Amino acid sequence: MGQFLDKHINKILRHLFDPVRGLRWMIMLALLTPMPYALAQLGYAGTIGIQPIHLFAYVYGDGVVRAMYVYDKFDTPIQVDGKLVGGVLELHEQNDHKGESAILRFEHFDMTQENVSGEWYRTDLSKRLPIVMKKEFVVEDGENLEASPLELTQAAATRDLYFKTRVVKQKDEYYPRVSAIKVFKKGTDVLLQTFNVDVEYRGVDNVSVDDYNFDGIEDFSVFESSYAGPDTSSLYFLRVPGAERFVESDFGGSSLEFDPAAKLIHEHSQCCAGTKHMSATYKVVKNKMVLVERKCFELDEEQGDLVTVKCE
Predict the structure, then answer these.
(1) 238 and 144 share a domain?
(2) What's this model's pTM, rounded to 2 decimal places?
């Protein structure tokens, strides 16, 4: 059955999606493909020059490093991905035009050390600043490992607000969980709201920012869970117009995609090793998802393709 599905996967996707939505779906699948297992998930506090910073890094087994840091004064997350090769860690900072603007370089990086030093410099070498950091925490998976709760700044932020997750690790749970989302005012660190949740831990990537109800205002979502195959779920929080607060919506479904041009929400789910699919389209009315159309498909092994069936 697995070889049969692999042989016909392109035909299945073409049958299920039009070309534009099909491309978006394949891109989303690529983004959801797990990276190699993280050897370490590390949090540091320190300075670049005289400016206080916090940095969080995933170090993967193949040397890839996914990292993010913030200047405490501004609270705007800056993504700095890079590589760890031969004890040298280089993280690359990009400007607004997606070009490289600066490098954070650590000549003798050791994940086991408490203190780390390096240098921040512009790619044109017009400015160089020392980096001094101390390890604040390590996030670990595993049985019989319990850790004190910690707050982790998220990589996504709005123009004026930023987010932190409260991460907990219980002895009887193999993986950490997120128990709360906190909303802060940039530049002041004033706590505006706390939402209690119970969702999968995704490091600095639990929170995403987008306009989910198509009112022109940035909202935020929280990754909730992944399921068999590509299916995922999230929680959606809508910003109250003219206010610095959010309300939790009743938006829900599997692997939702938001189309701002058409102001539609698309849902897709699958089960049974990809032999059953459901796709649905919704419009937003008074901050509610209203069903426009739903279609269901099952794999016909004789035809080697998905066929339309009645939705249960």
Answers:
(1) yes
(2) 0.82
